[in-house]
Amino acid sequence: MKLSRGFLFLLLPLVLLGLLGQDSLLGLLAVTVLGLGLALLWRPGVSPILLFVFGYQWLQVCLRIFQASLEGVPVDTLSQFGGAISGAIGLALFGLLLLALGMRLGAGQHVAASAAVLQQDVAVKPVLYWFKLYVAALLITLVAQVGERAIPGLSQPFLALASFKWAFYWAFTYATFSRKDGPRNLWFAVFALELALGFGDYFSDFKTILFMTIFALVPAGVRLTPGRLLGLACVAALTLTLGVVWSTVKSEYRDYLSQGERAQIVVVGYGDSMRHLLQLVNALDAAALAQGAQAMADRLSYIDIFARTLDHVPAYVPHQNGAVWGDAVLRPFMPRILFPGKTAIHDSEFTNQFSGLTFSTSKEGTSVSIGSMGEAYIDFGYFFMMVPIFLLGLALGWFYKWMTNYPACRGVIGMGLATVVLYPAAQFETSITKLIGGLVVSMLMAWLFARWGSRYMRKAA
């Protein structure tokens, strides 16, 4: 499938930047893997979630290349922890290529009928139908968040249920912009509401609303006219600005939300949190924003810990021969109520053990992980680590294909659910234990919803 010229035009500066640095061969490898990933996963007319799972991790892996090119230095000089990040980038790129290949094989070849199903689905229902579903999902999310706090043992199912709100936001956005009579003003009100709500959370999840909007606008067939390109540039600028501001104030803001507790909790009201956030933002100056931009780049890039892990294993700690991934696969099927001896997940402790670094641990309210790619290396080494990475991609692609073709929700709802469930798989830093556990629970909840919930929504049309 051919990519739009506008999309390729937006990628051109990034490609040139990668090729013109001192590590031009590494830049060429990065550009080649990007091109192959785009060719494998671009699916016009539907949610680009599979491409995002690959592309966002690619950016996290390759960001140091672009930084080094801008600064005119070798990429290894940017290593935060002393590891050879050039080698880690190369290894991770091969892993991402196999992940993309697995997703393509699992999802199968794209057919134009998939996009036609979405268009037909929104054509036969009024746009306000999708808005009403979003409002209902928003109310369910509020209930699920209360349930998650009230019954900690069922936190994962409640969190998965709460996340399904985004499936209906995706559906409402797609319906609004794929039809000429779409209620644009109503959509902008919903967008502003979700963006504001995102800043009340401990992690300030404002990125989700921006990404879900893009996931819906791309298949909606919004043509990239000069005006819309300007709008897209504004969204990108907004995302970048919010990221820089958040990176600058998040430490002080989180301390305020938790009132000094070393835990990832919110103990103040939404109004108080917003007032304090505005005070922090108003106090920013150019120097603070510059530091925030550097902090955001360091946070988005996630290759440095992987590089240290390559140096540390097996030189100081032996390979685990499948113990890490094996535990990740079995853990979701061992509920703590039946297996009270199941160990807790402590990412920072694990990272310190296998990287030789000394991050703060869960006792200080900190969680730093190596990521599923690094954990595959810890288990199997340079070569055999590619096998579980490929199988993970195969499973993600298969779920996408199954969810979007499931008879009970085939169409906009199925596409929205597939997008939401697979969205967390896009983060390179997520440990395989948390990733598989979260995916299994979300996939199960999506199936239950599709099996018994979608029929009532269809009747409400």
Number of strands: 0
**Structural class label:** mainly alpha
Specify the oligomeric state. Answer: single chain
Distance separating the two termini = 34 Å
- Portion of residues within helices: over 70%
Shape: globular
Order of helices and strands: HHHHHHHHHHHHHHHHHHHH
What fraction of the residues are assigned to beta strands by DSSP?
under 5%
Mean of the pLDDT scores? 85
Radius of gyration: 22 Å
Low-confidence stretches: none
Largest sheet: none
Number of H- or I-type helical stretches: 20
Describe the structure.
With 461 residues, this protein is mainly α. The protein has a domain at 115-311 and 348-459. Helices cover 70% and strands 0% of the residues. The chain is built from 20 helices and no strands. The longest helix has 33 residues, at 226-258. The two termini are 34 Å apart. The mean pLDDT is 85.
List the helices and strands and how they pair.
Elements: H1 5-19, H2 24-41, H3 49-71, H4 85-107, H5 112-123, H6 127-150, H7 155-163, H8 165-178, H9 184-198, H10 206-217, H11 226-258, H12 270-282, H13 286-300, H14 304-312, H15 323-330, H16 347-355, H17 372-384, H18 386-405, H19 412-422, H20 432-459
Helix pairs in contact: 1-2, 1-3, 2-3, 2-4, 3-4, 4-14, 4-18, 6-7, 6-8, 7-20, 8-10, 8-19, 9-10, 11-12, 11-13, 14-17, 15-20, 17-18, 18-19, 19-20
